[in-house]
Amino acid sequence: MKQILVATDFSQYATQAIDRAVLLATEHQAALDILHVITPASVDALCEFLPDPRPVVEEKLTNSFFSQLYDFIDRQESRRSITIRARVQIAEVEAGIIEAADSCDADLVVLGSHGEHFADELFVGTTAENVLARATRPVLIVKQKADAPYGKIGVAVDLTERSSATVHEADALAPNATISLLHAFQVPNHDHLRQLGVPEARIKHLRSDFHDHAAREIDKLAAERQDGRILRVVEMDYPPAMIRRWTEKIHFDLIVMGKHGGRLGSMARHVLRSSVCDVMFVG
Prior knowledge:
The structure is a single chain. By secondary structure, the protein is α/β, with parallel strands linked by helices. The chain folds into two domains: 3-144, 3-Layer(aba) Sandwich (Rossmann fold); 156-282, 3-Layer(aba) Sandwich (Rossmann fold). 49% of the residues lie in helices and 21% in strands. The chain has helices spanning 12-28, 40-47, 54-77, 93-104, 118-124, 127-134, 163-173, 190-195, 200-223, 239-250, 266-274, and strands at 3-7, 31-38, 84-90, 108-112, 139-142, 152-156, 178-185, 230-236, 254-258, 278-282. Strands 3-2-1-4-5-10-9-6-7-8 form a ten-stranded mixed β-sheet, sandwiched between helices. Strand 9, helix 11 and strand 10 (278-282) form a beta-alpha-beta unit. The protein is elongated and about 80 Å long.
């Protein structure tokens, strides 16, 4: 990991995201860009109160946020040996974050779990979710204070070809962490099968076949990590419920999971909204 981008709106949630990004950049000796996006609507609102032409208002607003970011960077660089750069741009928030990530070729985008206007986001969808839906790079959603490097990671795998990449990204992010591979499988509705006359023994055998196949695939993924610090969990369950239960049991500080191409599926949204720990999505 060579380049990290973290976005801030100067809210409490964004502060947690910055703290985690600084910690990760320090661990990996990566460069860190801290971005603030000014929306055109914000410029419009300020133009209503200032007599200056719009370009002057944009310049004043941009310089103001640069000043805030530089104050933070000065405090950090006196304590840490990493390169931190400030970025301020005028754009719609999601587009600005995606554009900045492409511009600096970020290996990781870090966001807070909610923005400044949390109540509104409950209805219109969070910035984090909108960025996740569009991003092609790994995106880390920070929900907890960054007190220490990640130590216990749960990796949700669906046994598709992207599962290996998901495990690899988790390992690259926190190579010293203990990783648990989590797979929840589901079989055709038992009651429906019974109504169709499928014998109970056949239903039980079907469930066993699903479990054994998943266990073999999980073993292949686990074999890619040589140090043995990996736990395998295969259960018949609804995936978000299984992830939540094992998070409470093992106290994960991070969940890593893949997403389906250019969209954020219902299961991913469920995990993102219900998880008490940080969540990273791999495209």
